[in-house]
């Protein structure tokens, strides 16, 4: 009985109001009280322990008398400013600073969100009003974070666009103004002096081997060089006494068959004939050694033009053992010594390819027969001694003129584009075109190697094509 009365007395003491309530050890501020959802100076014992646990991450903060009293304003104070004006900076520095600034901005935003989550998630229940305020702050923070992330994404996209496609490529006027004076401007069309449109044949080529930026200068140099290395037009009378024009034609006709046998390029054939004429213009030779000169010049041209040139033994074999290896090598030494090792000379094929490209620009679809026929007509001049008086560029332009006329007698074969790139007017081609047409129409020709070559199906049998009307538009 005594024990029960004592226990009841102890319980009454514990339940007495304000008898044994302990004052909080530390000072409770209004901000902390608001965060814990309580008011007044009294703090329950259980709430005190939980407040110590909740507010522990912020124990290093100063007194809240001089600090913002809501969580939303605390988050706003940690925001970083938007990227500053950097338009006057170089492109590389601009890209570097934007990327670095974006990474820092994203990193700080992530760290701020983590700190905010740690600070605003207490382990106690809050009142309805404070719960609404908390939800509003959370929504504001979420919207702000999404807005900043969108800005960061837009900045990264801008950086990628700057790195991939600089703005100068979108603005043709800026590109033209950025080029120095005298620079070659490559556009689709060029206006001629007489207001006629000239197609730019170098604007469509992306192959670096075409040298589109330097093609005009290259061919200007070739036009000057073709006059320096030109052979004598009358060396059969002034230098040679044992060979004739017919012998020269027979030799070249046989060399065409040799090129077909060893599958050599057209450049090799043209260079071979040029080297032969240059040697015969300066050095006398007996007719027994004319074939030796021919295979030696083809050996030199093969070494210069071909990837895999035929061996010396191959050329000895093709002559049926008429000449030995030593004789070929000795003749090679004489030829290169006479030429002073100046092997690179402009030939007809070098001009012909560019002129064909200019001729094809007037068609929506390139005509294969035009290319084959122009090459066929140009090769017909190799065996003709009389064509030595014409420069290679003039022969190439005449071959293109006659090829276009052979395929179409309705439209005029010459246009401003061809006149611009060949530097020849139609009237300047009259003598060469008429002489070339005589060879084309000659059915009694005794040299058939070139004609048989272009009678093959791989060349669309262009050797059978003959113009139905004589060439008239040359005046």
Walkthrough of the structure:
The protein has 475 residues and is mainly alpha-helical. The chain folds into 4 domains: 22-67, no CATH class; 73-178; 230-339, Orthogonal Bundle (Cyclin A, domain 1); 348-464, Cyclin-like (Cyclin A, domain 1). It has helices at 2-15, 30-36, 45-54, 71-76, 91-119, 128-164, 172-178, 215-228, 235-238, 245-262, 266-280, 290-305, 312-318, 325-339, 348-360, 368-380, 392-407, 416-422, 430-441, 449-453, and strands at residues 189-191, 197-199. Strands 1-2 form a two-stranded antiparallel sheet. The chain is elongated and about 155 Å long. Pfam families: Cyclin_C, Cyclin_N. Residues 253-337, 350-438 form the Cyclin-like domain. Keywords: Cell cycle, Cell division, Cyclin. One of its GO terms (molecular function) is cyclin-dependent protein serine/threonine kinase regulator activity. Residues 7-23 have a biased composition (Polar residues).
